[in-house]
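We emphasize that the prediction below concerns an isolated chain of 126 residues; any contacts that depend on oligomerization or on bound cofactors are therefore not represented. The input was used exactly as deposited, without trimming of termini.
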Amino acid sequence: MTESQARGAAAAVLGLRIAYGAGLILAPARLAQRWLGPESSSAPTQVPLRGLGMREVVLHAGALAAALARAPLRPWLVASIAGDLTDVAATVAGRRQLPPGSAKATLAVGGGSALISGALAIAVER
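Result of the prediction step, given as a token string:
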């Protein structure tokens, strides 16, 4: 994969991450139901979900801007990996109070996202 192709792939992934963040801001209960269960509908839970959504939007919009400008992208992707791993760790820590399967699903999604970002970080700046 050329660097140009890697940046294009990164741009696509980053666009999806921005959309996910926007979804968390606009409809936190809907997107977090499987992860957090019925608590995702409560206002106190929606506050940090919207904060998480804003993290996704801002971080990945910055990364997308870097990808399109051919600026260094790796630091943005490393920050994205750190966010994903933090989400996984927080979910594992609270797994006993979460719906069955939530921790495993978060490990798969968050861990998978971290792996994709890691692969892109390697590919974009060899």
